[in-house]
Write a structure and sequence with these properties.
By secondary structure, this protein is α/β, with parallel strands linked by helices. Helices cover 33% and strands 16% of the residues. The relative contact order is 0.09.
């Protein structure tokens, strides 16, 4: 038997041994999916992406009116309690929180690609051209027109205003509607 043949026989023997072990132990091994911080994307919930000390920690779905302390608790984090024993009383208004272990944090917007992957709508008045082209049915030309019209108006007040752009009629607006929303300012 040549050296290569001996290597082949050894490899087959090792494979047979692994298959035997798997046949014996396989049924007793549980393959539970990893815990995912996302629980739901129902309208009664607020999806919030968390970046903790420069690292993305995931997206958490919390009830409307949730506070910053609720987000930290859901993420299993214990930041310094700079607001007393009740935790941070800040109500989450953004959908992305940048925070550190100390008292520093900022509220902002989730990345457009991340929101689209989660099937969440985007706030049309805050999108860049690069964000808009991520939306199915919008190319660079249409994205530029959306931004130009937004700059001319100051901001969109209703999604129907998109029909002022050449190429966006009722049928296309109906397809785009699920991707956008307009933030209501008090």
């Amino acid at each position: 038997m040549t050296g290569r043949q001996a290597e082949g026989v050894a490899a087959l023997a090792a494979l047979a041994a692994l298959m035997t072990v798997w046949a014996i132990l396989g049924p007793s091994i549980s393959f539970e999916p990893a815990a995912v911080p996302c629980l739901s994307n129902e309208q009664e919930t607020l999806a919030v992406a968390l970046t903790w000390e420069g690292k993305e920690k995931g997206v958490y779905f919390l009830p409307q009116g949730a506070k910053l302390a609720d987000l930290f608790a859901a993420a299993g984090l214990a930041p310094q309690d700079h607001a007393g024993k009740g935790g941070d009383p800040t109500v989450l208004t953004g959908d992305h929180v940048h925070a550190s272990g100390g008292s520093g944090y900022s509220l902002g917007r989730m990345k457009a690609a991340q929101a689209l992957a989660l099937d969440l709508p985007l706030e049309i008045n805050s999108l860049s051209c690069a964000d808009l082209v991520l939306v199915p049915g919008i190319g660079e030309k249409t994205a530029a027109q959306i931004i130009a019209l937004r700059e001319k108006k100051g901001a969109y007040g209703a999604l129907e205003e998109l029909m002022e752009i050449k190429g966006i009629k009722e049928k296309k607006l109906a397809k785009l509607r699920r991707y956008f929303f307009i933030a209501k300012h008090p």
